[in-house]
Amino acid sequence: MKTSPNPEAEQRRRRQTKILPFYMQEKLIIGFCFFLILFLLLTFALFQIVRNNNEAFNRKVLRQRQTQYGSKVLPAKRGDIMDRNGTILATSQKVYNLIVDARTMTSYQDKRYEEASLKAVEEFFKEDAGELRAYIAKQDALPDGKKSAYYKYKKRLSYEERTAFLDYIDEQNKQYKKDGKKDRIKGLDFEEEYRRYYPYKNLACNIIGFTTDDGESGQAGVEQFYNKSLIGTNGRTYGYLDSDTKLQSVIREATDGNSLVTTINYNIQRTVEKYLQEWQTQDVGSKVASAIVMDPKTGEILAMASTKQYDLNEPRKLDETEYPESLLLELGKKEAQIVYKREHENKSISTDEVGQYFTQEELLSYGRQAAWNEVWRNPVISDTYEPGSTVKPFTIAGALEESVIKPKTTFTCDGKVTLSDGVHTWNIRCHKRDGHGTLDAEQALMQSCNVYMMNTAFAEGAETFVKYQHVFGFGDKTTVDLPGEADTASLVYTVDTLGKTTLATNSFGQNFNVTMIQMASAFCSVINGGSYYRPHVVKQILNANGTVIKDVQPELMRVTVSEDTSAFLREALFQTVEGGTGKPAQIQGYHVGGKTGTAQKLPRSAKNYLVSFCGFAPVEDPQLLVYVVVDTPNLEGEAQSSASFATKIEQKIMNDALQFLNIQPQGETDPNASLNKDLQSEEGILGENQSKEEDENAENGKKEGASEKLENNSSAKKDSSASDAQEGKVVKRSVDTDEKAEDEGEVPDELPSTSESTESTSVR
User: Fold this and answer.
1) pTM listed for this prediction
2) pLDDT band at 578; cut points 50, 70, 90
3) Distance in angstroms (rounded) separating the CA atoms of residues 754 and 762
4) What residue stretch is flagged as signal peptide (predicted)?
5) How is domain 381-676+683-702+749-755 classified at the architecture level of CATH?
């Protein structure tokens, strides 16, 4: 029989199981308080850390997240360079650099990213990535905080290459996932930049110039002179953490550089280079030959070139046949001597001693730099030389302006002028030893008579002669908008240093030095009515949207001669071509004026010559000036001295240029006998590397900017006593002349001179 439990005993038992002993409750309370205090302390410490180091943590997190999402430079596009009709001569193409992020690639110990990524590079580019493997291995050994997230592995990949590689990565990663592998291609990315590109390679290389590899700095030509206008400003994407610690980005857009519309006419530039190269490779050839074409009414340079050319896309690539190692060493030794002298308080060493102080590699390096400087040099603005008889129109012009002579003033040439200082006697001869007889100013120019020029200079006197040298710009920079213009201030005489013998030789272009840009600019002024315009190669500056922000107007710097003097010279120089020393410059149907020049280089005993011709057309209204200089033809002695070498080159250039500009013949002409049928008839023609679409873009790329050729607004009153040429009539006269005779006479070596030959006076 079941007995019922004792109620009191049951209640006592239940109370004992529910209620903990007091000592246990005490321990529990103490423990709870301890952990509560510890929690509060940790919370406070964490709060202090976050408060005091919030910015540093944010930067660290941001850097980590930017590694994944990217914060990149947005490169600005360097402005284009165009000819006057919109033909692109220099542009910038977007290219891509393959960037390696070693931190991401090495983030797993099992190398799941590293091996897959390196394999992808090797397989896609079909190359051994040994260099990249070595770099990654080196980075892998570094602590995480020291690893680099930026290594430029491949440069200047095309858009097609970039797209193909990204597609390849995507396909490979999908395949890894499908196969259940942990491998992934990570840590490879692309950055954009621009590569400078010159579609016509060496065309107009002396004018355009080139840039550094990154396109940030122009190194020659308008690329250098207008660098600040061309470069633009880079943009950037910035990452930051918002209040919710989410990565946000801000984009600062790049501002592209301004574009330049040059004064260059692509067709005329190409023509100039064509005929210079024909002279150099298919004719006699010379040390160097150069040419410049200008618009006499504005100072605009339509073309400028020399036989020294280089590919603007590879400016440091030297022709090994022209610059063999032996020549580089020779050039390097000369440069090393200069370096040693500069670094050792003006102490000199001989060529034989150079090897004691410089290694062969150093000498080759100096030699390459010297060779580059030779190739990049622009002879038209940087080389100086004695101009010869092309100066004679200026001698006559100054005398006419001062009324020292009149057009009909005569002097008698018996073949020489004898001068003496009481100790020495000099016979300064005319090129025609038996003399020209009695000549007036026009006849003197036609026959290039030295004796007439000397007598004219004596009548002027040293003070007036020197004054007009500077009026015409000899001894002064033209300030053309190109770098490297030679300073000729010390290469002309002053009133105090110009003696009678040097006055005599200066009158026909010897014993002082000029540059081609000085001569061409001065010549433009004496045939255009007397306006000396600043020579320039940039016509307009456009912003990135194509809006004209600067329109370069003709800048009148000074007036050199009166309209009467200019009219006389135009007629006299026309007669020089029609019946004088400039006959090879004649072009059927056109009235061409011009002057030959032959200068004997120093030392005179070497019998080396520089020959030239400066021509213009049409005589009635000059629209083109072409100046050609041929330095040291590849012949011996007196055979070099024929000015016809330069005259024939000028004639070809002028003939084609007149047609390019649609300047119509003034007289009867047989097109089959004179005009060049092979020429393009329109301006801004397609180049070899331009498609029709590109040409349309170039047309649009004129961007309201490539305007019609600037017209000269100034018109001078023509005197009724001026020649018939001023009224549109050209009277052809013929004067007997010895066509085989040389243009210059003899100038003795012992004459005082401040000038040297081209080799020694060229400005480095």
Assistant:
1) 0.80
2) very high
3) 14
4) none
5) 3-Layer(aba) Sandwich (3.40)
